[in-house]
Structures are given as structure tokens and as C-alpha cells.
Amino acid sequence: xxxxxxxxxxxxxxxxxxxxxxxxxxxxxxxxxxxxxxxxxxxxxxxxxxxxxxxxxxxxxxxxxxxxxxxxxxxxxxxxxxxxxxxxxxxxxxxxxxxxxxxxxxxxxxxxxxxxxxxxxxxxxxxxxxxxxxxxxxxxxxxxxxxxxxxxxxxxxxxxxxxxxxxxxxxxxxxxxxxxxxxxx
Length: 185
Fold this sequence. Notes:
alpha+beta, tt1808, chain A
């Protein structure tokens, strides 16, 4: 898949990454020039993703704010960072950033469903990357602990809230509220 002549510490660029022959149906990400191939998500994560997608799309149908995308859609955040979030939402004014094979720039909202294999990456490495890239709201949905952590950029600073019960509302997507119990059902 990657040229064997490249040194092991060779950082891939987003451009090189987007031109790699990828196996169909697998997720690939580029973090600081390093290629990651995470395992397939657990079925409970797929169910949670479906529940979130339904809620997000319902809200977007009611409020023409933007568009939602699902996994396997590349998000180019920088020259050396390309991620494939479980879900992400862009604003209408970001439509020009949608390209044939990717979205270029920071989405308004990103949703990642945490698995045991990606807990550290999602909660540390990606959280930092998303805040530095300008993602306004990052939802870390944790099925194991049945909680949602929301990282928001507020006046250039990171604000983090943890929700374990009740309803959770977005500060970015108007009218978007979910019940924790419904998401993990």
C-alpha cells in the first residue's frame, strides 16, 4: 500500500494520503503524517452512530443549518492531518469546502464514538487536533461509560462538559438536543 522505499519515519502529506490505494470499506486516518488503520467499529458503536445520524438529520431537515456526513468521508485538517470522524456537520457556508474526495477544513461539529482501541486517540490526540483546527464542537460519545463529553471552543478557549444523564444540547447546531438514554439504547 505504501511505497517500501520510503523511510519508516517519512511523514505522509494529506495529498499523498488522499492518493493512496485504500482497501474498500476500511477507515484510514493521517495524524501528524502517520498512517492509522483502526479496526472496524463494534456493532454497538454502529447503532449509536445510526441513532445520532437520525437525530442530526431530523434537526437539519427542520433547520436548514448545513449537512451531515458519515464515516469514510475524509476531513483534511492540515497538510499532515486527515481524519474520518464517525459523523460531522458542516454549515451551509462551508459547502465550497466539500471536494470530490474530502472535506477541506474544520467542520462545525464532529462526533466520535469511542471504542477501547481508540479511547486515547479520540480523547487526547484528536481532541487537541480538533480544537487547534477550529472545530467548534466535538462530541466524544463513550458507550462503555455511557457518557458524552463535549469539547467546545468558546472565544478561542476549550470548554469541556461531561454528560451522564438527561438531555444534551448543542451550542452550534440550533435546536439539536439528544437524550442520553436514547443514544445508548
